[in-house]
Amino acid sequence: MKPKKQWAPLAEHIIIGFLVVGAFLPLATYVGAKMNSTISPPSIGNNKDNILQMQDGLQKLGYYQGEQTGKIDNATKLAIQKFQKDNTIKPANGKISGKTLSTMLRQLNKSQKQGGQNDNGRSGYRYGINAPAITPYTPPSENDPGEIEKRKVQQSQSGSNWMDTGSDFVAVGAPPACPDPLVMQPPVDFTKVSSILYPGQYRGSNYKPHGGFRLDNNGSNNISIKIPFDATLINGSRYNEIGEMQYLLTFQSPCGIRYRFDHLLMLAPKFQKILEQVPLTEDTHTTEFNPPVAVTAGEEVATAVGHTVNKNYAFDFGVYDLRKKNAASAKADWVTEHEKDPGFRLAIHGICWFDLFPSQKQLLISLPGGDSASGKKSDYCL
Fold this sequence. Notes:
By secondary structure, the chain is an alpha+beta fold.
């Protein structure tokens, strides 16, 4: 009986010790993980803590620009899907898996060790190649011929054959001839387009020389946008609109055809890394890329468009022939009405781009006008 009395208290202490250690080890592992940010929390899934961690990490890596809400909204899901696709994580379903979270944390650790920051003060090493240098765009003064000549030399050295003089666009040197007939590849799958925003019309209170596409039947912003014509990326901007990041990109071909996309929500990697250098603004003021960046027809430029907050599934698309002025600009009353517009220099070169897609022209014409007030009314599409 005496040995039993001696071992009973000792056994109780041993059991309690194992329980304490057993409870402490998972907690220590989790705390260590949070301190070192090298492994994911023990519970993987779309719970609030993991969502907040994912939103914060994706924001630092340049994938997510929304608020850190701890909820999987459409913008968060698109950001997670894009991250999963870029890192070949399957399935790319926008859900938080252990591999998704651990991959994100490894990338964050790598960027912190590199010590880099983007122009918002956050770590930004999503891509490993250097983007071209960029310089602010300042139109030359019409009253300073020396400044215009200087700009011509700069444009020629950068590989661009056209220059904005402040009043119009002029050729620099001898630009190559454009294809005849001029044909483009569709910038979007036209079968997914629900209506057309016609170029050369009033939408709201502003005159729009550009047109665009609505994709209301697509069910989401997740849509692929592609380069329609070989060119160079000459300028762009990123800006906040109703709480979401929007991108505007302008492309110029050597022969004199310019086209522009606006309201791109999520860019393809090549363009994302370039636009990360552009100052964030509250408007569409552009930054010029020097040197311009070559692009090829069929290359993906964006993977999502429009806005998620109001389910506005649309993007702008404008085409301008800098070689000649359009028929609308030959009318004195039209010039008087629009010469004070900020985009007048481009408006006099705007074209009805239906003819650039001869195989799909009838489909485009058959679609309804996307603006409820102006419908299919257009100064360019006569």
